[in-house]
Amino acid sequence: MDEIANFEPAEVFSLAEYLCEEMGARGWTTEDAAIRMGGTPEEIARKLLKLDIVLCVQKDNMVLTDDFFEDLGRAFDVSPELFRNLDATWRKWPDRRFNGFVMPDHMFGPISRRSMIRSVQ
């Protein structure tokens, strides 16, 4: 049990990278994922924007709420803990991060918002 408590990962990856791989495997765009998160059209639009921002600019100071993790769990039909744990591990081990990840443009659907988000950074 002590070995597990002292575990140090060789490499960690961001929530954005995991989401990109999962959406790609399902053939989803960010719009598809946001729709699966559920809610009114206005709520879906807000979730889409948050998802786009997470995928483009995930930073240490970005606050991800329990509601966001719940929405991701609903969309991907898994426990929200999966996403909480991925995010917590990524934040805990900054020196073990893989920093070569770039979200592919095709994940953003027909109208790419990436350039709009990156221009605000």
Give an account of the 3D structure.
By secondary structure, this protein is an all-alpha fold. It has one domain (13-95, 106-120). 60% of the residues lie in helices and 0% in strands. It has 7 helices and no strands. It has helices at residues 2-5, 15-26, 30-37, 41-57, 66-76, 80-92, 114-120. Helix 3 packs across helix 4 (41-57), helix 3 (30-37) packs across helix 5 and helix 5 (66-76) crosses helix 6. It is globular and about 45 Å long.
Concise synopsis of the structure shown:
The protein is mostly helical and 121 residues long.
Features:
0% strand, mainly alpha, 60% helix, globular, 121 residues
From the N-terminal CA to the C-terminal CA, the straight-line distance is: 43 Å
Note the run of SSEs as H and E. HHHHHHH
Number of domains: 1
Strand content: under 5%
Structural class: mainly alpha
Poorly predicted runs are 114-121
How much helix is in the residues?
55-70%
Radius of gyration: 15 Å
Number of DSSP helical runs: 7
Number of strands: 0
* Shape designation: globular
Largest sheet: none
What does the average pLDDT come to?
A: 80
Blueprint of the fold:
Layout: H1 2-5, H2 15-26, H3 30-37, H4 41-57, H5 66-76, H6 80-92, H7 114-120
Helix pairs in contact: 3-4, 3-5, 5-6
